[in-house]
Design brief:
Structural class: mainly alpha
Radius of gyration: 23 Å
Number of domains: 2
Number of strands: 7
Order of helices and strands: HHHHHHHHHHHEEEHEEEEH
Shape: elongated
Helix content: 40-55%
Distance between the termini: 36 Å
Strand order of the largest sheet: 3-2-4
Length: 377
């Protein structure tokens, strides 16, 4: 999805708080049951999409599979969960009596129309519950693919093709220039660092959204949950802080404090005997000339391979929403972690804004189109 501001302009006004309901009340209230089903099933879809894509890239990075990602196995996992999620929502929800009454739109125009996937999602019809589910999943997957492209900087083009609003799979990454080197990092310490960035980043987004969802389904709006003022869930701030610390610790554990984010990573083209080396424009040029690529080293002034500073192939500045270019500089692991934070937090805000139209989750909500009921034969 492109950004919170655009979504906010197209969502229903937050005119009422969500009723506080017990489990028994959910069973007696079809709207509440429908809402809970939508949130829970989209959570399953989100988890499958993010984890399936990241596992595929991790394997490709280590040369376990040839790529590109997503491969057939990844697509099969997503197609399977897609069918299950849609069936569950269709089983528990009615379009007019439940979804539109809850404040959801009667169209899919949750963002600006573009030539890419955002435009595709915005143009989807919402005349049935089935179409509603497809609409929600379309926006979510576009945001998730964008997030993965940012997390796995060396595979951004593979994930998205174009990195602007014309991408057929990803929402606009924002300021995605200069582009990091696009390649498989290999089965080495840099690859281990990248795998941990992906795993910790995905886990953080999933945790953050789930923390808010659980609180808001209990009847509190987003600001109240965030402040810790929800009587039924006072621990939201503590849980968010814990999730942040876990993500930070996990990335630092594998990437260390001495590894530097860089658009390219160091290599040495070993040629001849011992550590003798020659200069090469890239790894392919080295290998085509009969040389051997040694990662994490450089060809020194004495024409021998020597240890180079540790790097992680990543963005020089944090990709941001369109209109803010360049993004915040990424020069250290701490900067990288902050970029993961801001990206994940923004995506969670967008998704909560969509899923809780009456949860005061949108910064500047405006009324959605008035639903026009059609007779049921």
């Amino acid at each position: 999805m492109c950004c919170t501001t655009w979504i906010a302009r197209t969502l229903v006004a937050a005119t009422a708080s969500i009723a506080v309901l017990t489990p028994a009340a959910f069973a007696a209230d079809p709207q509440a049951l429908c809402h809970k089903t939508v949130v829970k099933q989209l959570e399953k879809f989100k988890k499958t999409v993010l984890k399936a894509h990241s596992k595929c890239i991790d394997k490709e990075n280590k040369l376990v599979i040839p790529g590109p990602c997503p491969d057939a196995a990844t697509n099969l996992k997503i197609a399977t969960i897609n069918s299950k999620v849609k069936a569950k929502i269709v089983d528990k929800c009615l379009l007019f009596a439940d979804l539109l009454a809850l404040g959801y739109r009667n169209d899919c125009n949750y963002g600006p129309g573009t030539l890419g996937v955002d435009g595709t999602c915005a143009a989807l019809p919402v005349t049935t519950v089935d179409e509603f589910a497809e609409c929600m999943k379309c926006w979510k997957e576009a945001d998730f693919r964008r997030y993965l492209a940012i997390l796995y900087a060396s595979h951004a083009v593979e994930q998205c093709g174009a990195l602007d609003g014309t991408s057929a799979t990803c929402s606009d990454l924002g300021c995605a220039t200069p582009l990091p080197e696009q390649r498989n990092l290999g089965d080495n310490s840099e690859g281990d660092c990248q795998k941990r960035i992906g795993k910790a980043g995905v886990k953080y987004l999933l945790k953050r959204e789930k923390i808010f969802e659980k609180c808001m389904l209990k009847g509190c709006d987003k600001p109240t949950c965030l402040s810790g003022g929800c009587a039924l869930d006072l621990t939201v701030p503590v849980k968010l802080e814990k999730a942040e610390l876990q993500k930070k610790t996990a990335i630092e554990d594998k990437c260390g404090g001495n590894r530097v984010p860089s658009l390219t990573s160091n290599f040495c083209c070993r040629s001849g005997t011992g550590n003798a080396c020659v200069s090469a424009a890239d790894r392919a040029a080295c290998e085509s000339a009969g040389g051997t690529v040694q990662e994490g080293k450089t060809c020194g002034v004495d024409d021998t391979c020597t240890q180079a500073p540790k790097t992680i192939t990543w963005w020089a500045s944090c990709p941001s929403e369109p209109g803010a270019c360049p993004g915040t500089a990424v020069a250290t692991i701490a900067d990288l972690i902050a970029c993961v934070d801001s990206t994940a937090d923004g995506i969670v805000d967008d998704l909560l804004c969509m899923q809780f139209p009456n949860g005061n989750a949108c910064p500047t909500p405006t009324s959605a189109p008035t639903p026009t009921p059609t007779p049921t034969p």
